[in-house]
Write a structure and sequence with these properties.
The chain has helices at residues 69-81, 98-101, 104-111, 119-129, 138-145, 152-159, 164-168, 240-251, 271-295, 304-307, 314-333; strands at residues 24-27, 30-36, 43-53, 56-62, 88-92, 114-117, 177-178, 184-187, 190-197, 204-209, 214-218, 259-262, 268-269, 337-341, 348-352. The chain is an alpha/beta fold and 353 residues long. Strand 10 (204-209) and strand 11 (214-218) form a beta hairpin. The longest helix is centred in the C-terminal third of the chain and has 25 residues, at 271-295.
Length: 353
């Protein structure tokens, strides 16, 4: 959902963006890389931090991009021109989603370096790269059908996406270094603190450097769009929205003037304002869903037009369905809605208490 209150944020770099295969230096030892994505959300921001490990100077990378030839070629351009003759020492991945994890295996092999990630997201990536997790196949189609998605063409396409995750993350490194909430990393002579976030991914790690006034937010806080928060088939009664909103609230403990380095969009200031915007956005959507379910029992599919004011392609529809269920589950598990599965069609419908 586009941010109608974006003017409350400020963009210190204006409209500047890294060139394809290039970098934009934000500060000494901090470089911004931008890779393409084959989706409506057409880019991901990646970060390079000057570092030293065991006496060896080099670089720490944050996130990898998806696994395709174009992203590999772009990385090779970066390596050829923007490493100052130094090696990559480690790769930090904020969470398991394909645009963040896709090239982790290739990068760690290419540089003989270690992957750093939360244990939850590492193990889910390993599971998903061998099959799929909540993104396609028979169980995903059955889950969405049980929440009212009835278009046979869409369901057939979802069934055919059993290899969706492995197509972008064909392999995962065999070993990793675990990141945990509150853990402090020394990167380039500065302390960076891991901040665990929940709801968007199982155990997403943002990185905050108090001395530099920087937050690498990953997908937890984005300036222009709201982070996807979905229920998927492997955990059908989950409440990721409440987890996400709780995680956002903890971001308010950081200084208001923090420069936020998001995975999508441009670096911005206005962290507290953006957290307030995202919380207000979801409260409005929860109120809309509650009102709709007061009028009549509703399933997730018939709420898509209420929650999303634009045409959705299949990729967007699967995420939108997951997010619709997330809003329903949040209200249901809070005791504000009741849930009933209709024996006639097998669809879950939610009614106001």
């Amino acid at each position: 959902m586009a941010n109608a209150r974006e003017s409350e944020l400020s963009y210190p770099l204006g409209e500047a963006l890294p060139a394809p295969g290039g970098v934009l230096e934000l500060a000494p030892g901090l470089r911004w890389v931008r890779m393409g994505l084959p989706f409506a959300l057409d880019h991901i921001n990646l970060w390079m931090l000057r570092d030293e490990i065991d006496g060896q100077p080099g670089w720490t990378l944050v996130d990898s991009g998806i696994c395709n030839d174009a992203t590999k070629a772009a990385w090779e351009q970066v390596f050829a021109s923007h490493l100052d003759g130094l090696p990559v020492l480690r790769l930090i991945v904020t969470h398991f989603h394909p645009d963040h994890m896709g090239l982790a295996h290739w990068l760690t092999e290419r540089w003989n370096c270690r992957l750093w990630i939360s244990a939850t997201d590492f193990n889910l990536a390993r599971l998903a790269s061998g099959s799929t997790v909540g993104m396609g196949g028979e169980t995903a189609a059955a889950f969405f059908a049980g929440h009212g998605l009835s278009d046979e063409e869409s369901l057939a396409k979802i069934r055919g996406r059993a290899s969706y995750y492995p197509s972008m993350v064909p392999a995962v490194p065999s070993s990793f270094r675990r990141l945990m909430n509150g853990q402090r990393l020394e990167i380039g002579g500065h302390a960076w603190t891991c901040i665990a976030g929940y709801g968007h991914a199982p155990e997403h790690m943002s990185l905050h450097c108090e001395a530099l006034g920087l937050l690498i937010s990953g997908d937890m806080v984005l300036p222009r769009i709201s982070t996807n928060v979905s229920v998927v088939d492997v955990e059908p009664e989950a409440d990721p929205l409440s987890l996400y909103l709780d995680s956002l609230s903890r971001m308010l403990a950081l200084p208001a003037d923090t420069l936020v380095l998001p995975s999508h969009g441009k670096p911005f200031r206005g962290l507290h304002a953006r957290v307030d915007q995202l919380q207000a956005h979801h409260e409005e959507r929860l109120a809309d869903v509650l009102a709709a379910c007061r009028a009549k029992p509703c399933h997730a599919a018939e709420l898509l037009d209420l929650l999303f004011k634009r045409q959705l392609d299949l990729h967007q529809t699967t995420f939108a369905m997951g997010e619709s269920v997330a809003h329903l589950n949040a209200l249901w598990l809070a005791g504000r809605l009741t849930r009933r599965r209709d024996p006639a069609d097998g669809i879950y419908r939610f009614s106001a208490c």
